[in-house]
Amino acid sequence: MMTKKILRQVEYDKAAYNLAIEYLLSFESVGISRNLLSEYLEPMVDDLRPNSLPEVYFRLLGTAQNRSMGPSVIGKSIGGIEKLTRVLYDFDSKKVNGEFGDDWAKVLDEIEFQLQPSGKIRRTPRSLWPLFCRSITSSARFLCQFHDSSEFLNWVDVFDSDIKSRLALPLLLSAEIEGIGFPLACDFLKGMGYFNFGKPDVHIKTIFSGLDLVLQQVDDYSVFKAISRVAESNSVTVYNVDKLFWLIGSGNFHENPELGSDGRIQTNRDEFIQKASSELSIKFGAA
Fold first, then answer.
1. In this structure, are 180 and 63 located in the same domain?
2. pTM for the structure as a whole
3. Do 36 and 84 lie in a common domain?
């Protein structure tokens, strides 16, 4: 039997989730509907799974470039990371590892020679380009242990099938691949259709903290567990909860460029927190 404290938390989680849905539906005038939200919150697994090991490698690098100002400093400067196919042997991790090993500077030399990135290339160790090139070499080395994408996905399945070991997977990936910390590792996994993973990014942390959905300190681990708890309370996937609150924070409906300004609508994260926390306080008192 559930204790009163647990029941209260479940009801609180449900109320917060429903307020998030209501907030996004308040943008009906710009095209947000329940059907549209369902497309973002409940995608088909088969639409997200990679079909080859080079695609896994490409997605890892796409995740790695999302660190800080990476999309503009790296991707934009070469016309998109898909252009790296010329340098990275069509994203063949074994060939990349064989050619470059751990020599990130050699990778960067080749990128500069073949792709001629716009903007200044800083080579200090913690600058974005050197860090990204270390992601290129460490990702290639890591993926060399897998024969194909099926073997890689089966390996992920082992962790994902056990709730006690699931959290270890993003920690392992962040240890193996330079430039991909815990949040980005979670983002990589959920982007491949592993719906038990949510990314504890700045939007989720801010909203969950503002609505008292985090029961402990606001760190990656605590927020990851809080996303999972809210998902369980609402009988939806972790991906669903992650995407819902991320859409409130970002307003980014990127698959529908006809909405707002090229797919971006004018959501207001702080306004949502203020209104939702007020309604939750009225209904539940102190969280």
1. yes
2. 0.89
3. no
Q: Report how many domains make up the chain.
A: 2
pLDDT digits (tens, 9 = 90+) for 14-60: 999 999 999 999 999 999 999 999 999 999 988 899 999 999 999 99
pLDDT band at 286 (very low <50, low <70, confident <90, very high): low
| H-run or E-run covering 174 | helix 168-176
In eight-state DSSP terms, residue 30 is G
Domain that holds residue 215: 4-45+197-284
187's tokens: 């983002």
Residue pointed to by tokens 């991320």: 246
The yes-or-no verdict on residue 1 having pLDDT over 60 is no
Cβ-contact 263, 254 below 8 angstroms? yes
